[in-house]
Amino acid sequence: MSQTAATPSHPVTDRVLHAMQVSKRGCDELLPEADWLTKLARSEATGVPLRIKLGLDPTAPDIHVGHTVVLNKMRQLQDLGHRVIFLIGDFTSMIGDPSGRNTTRPPLTREQIEANAQTYYRQASTVLDPDKTEIRYNSEWSDPLGARGMIQLAARYTVARMMERNDFAERFKAGTPISVHEFLYPLMQGYDSVALKSDLELGGTDQKFNLLVGRALQGEYGQEPQCILTMPLLEGLDGVEKMSKSKNNYIGITEPANTMFAKLLSISDVLMWKYFTLLSFRSEAEIAKLKAEVEGGRNPKEAKVMLAKEITARFHSAAAADAAEADFENRARGGIPDEIPELSLSGAPLGIGALLKQANLAPSSSEAMRLVDGGGVRIDGAVVSDKGLKLERGTYVVQVGKRKFARVTLA
């Protein structure tokens, strides 16, 4: 018989209310809130930490700050004293999760999964406290299930409920093929929650269905069902699309400090506040005070610099963040950064379009011409206005826009 988290039988103290406030900060949904309050009160009264699960399929080796939104929430819950379980979906990666897609995602090889998982966790550890993080692989319990166990698990969930998932329903309606093995993905992710006896599972808004399957299966196995907490997807630098490498609107957490700082300063004044809520470790009261000051006339750039320095320091160091700020200000004044790429090209005299393309400062000669037209190209600090310019032998500092530089030796 399934169990539920009943009305709190332990006192709801100020510390419990604070923990609830931290849990809800920036989240999209926390379901059911009453059950989570009960779990928090019980943990506070008994001193037994709650088990917080985050499952990640290591489908790509590198992560950007959009991925860290849910990791930040895990860190906040760690700081409250709870146990974080960083679950590597090495078994489920071999199935391929179709969440949010209208086609099946191809499975990875075992070697790809292991290499990606190591890189992913190393990067995630810049946010999580490794000493308070339990790392698990879901092949631990998924491989031993075998065919008999898989059939028994599948018997605990209906096709009708599976078809409530939006992407399955839409693909079925459109006549797009759905492979039977795809139904196994949410089942296996849900079974992870059973195996780990998780109290709370986190994920992006696109994972809500899978998280709810875990809650349902725990009930089927006689466990107290987990609560689920979904975090919003972070818009990228354009302020429109979800942060994504394919959209080229991302901030990679392994990017150089100067690049990271400059990218953060490029976000809009409006989007900045969402970044503060989801990425900053400042308290909500601090952020509210800062926002009120900006609304009262304080320069929003000052707030943005604070955000950029905090995030850059997290993934590099405070000294690197200070240096990145100095570098940015130097560029803004038209100065040249201390460190810029150096390369040698041949073919002098070389046209400006070909030079920009060969120096990787423009994707094509036509785009280089457009940049010259817009006044965005400088040679040794002087704006280039002549699209027919040819450069003779020599060394030049070439600048495109505010952030792209190269020291080119032309022979």
CATH architecture of the largest domain: 3-Layer(aba) Sandwich
- Provide the structure class: alpha/beta
Taking all residues together, what is the mean pLDDT?
87
Could you state the order of secondary-structure elements as H and E?
HEHEHEHEHHHHEHEHHHHHEEHHEEEEE
Number of strands: 13
Largest sheet: 6 strands, mixed
Q: What's the helical proportion of residues? A: 40-55%
What is the tally of helical segments? 16
The CATH topology of the largest domain is given as Rossmann fold
The low-confidence parts are 100-104
Our estimate of the beta-strand percent is 5-15%
> Going across the major beta sheet, what is the strand order?
1-6-5-2-3-4
> Measured on Cα atoms, how large is the radius of gyration?
26 Å
How many structural units, i.e. domains?
A: 3
Distance between the termini: 80 Å
CATH superfamily of the largest domain: HUPs
Give the CATH class of the largest domain: Alpha Beta
Task: Offer a concise description of the structure.
With 411 residues, this protein is an alpha/beta fold. It has helices spanning 14-24, 33-46, 68-79, 110-124, 139-154, 159-162, 166-174, 180-196, 208-220, 257-265, 271-279, 284-295, 300-315, 318-332, 352-358, 365-373, and strands at residues 29-31, 51-56, 83-88, 133-137, 200-204, 227-231, 342-345, 350-351, 377-379, 382-383, 390-391, 394-400, 404-410.
